[in-house]
Amino acid sequence: MMKRLPILGTILVLIAVITMAGLGIWQLQRAQWKNDLLATYAAASDMPAISYPAVPSAEDAPYFRKSTVNCLAVTGWRSTSGRNASGQSGWAHIAQCRTAGAEGPGAQVVAGWSSRPDDPDWQGGIVNGIIAPDSQYIIRLVASEPVAGLQKSQPPALEDVPNNHLSYAVQWFLFAGIALIIFLIALRARNKGVAQSGNLS
To answer: What pTM, to 2 d.p., does this model score?
Structure first.
């Protein structure tokens, strides 16, 4: 007696496996893109300074490039856990700066580091620094020289840029393989049950 595949179930599983494998391939391509980008970032310190981007893009952010921000006024502060240039744990003080007009695009400036989260007394000014990743605003400028009596913050590092594409690719390939194995096990059990029913009849 010929064992037939469950058509609908087989189609659904194949679609799922192909989709997950495709996502794995896409993540591999993204991993190569990110590696090339990291190589560009590694060479950024030797590149000329650029204008601070008014509207940065997460896909092409100029991380690790030198830049300058004219902080016309500080509109707010946020303090995050950070380290100083010596590696000591404490607080990085990020000024939310107005850069052009009342409704200007603004900029996030790491003014410096201290052991306490209290807001510094700084009203703004011209700040030179290095563009770094920011979890809320894509980029921020880490001041090369701290202001308002703060200590110098730890410079941005390549490790600050997430690069999980390879692990994501492995996960998608594993999901595809597991789905296929489960389907084959279920199919074997089904065919075994059909064969036993045929023998009893």
So the answer is: 0.69
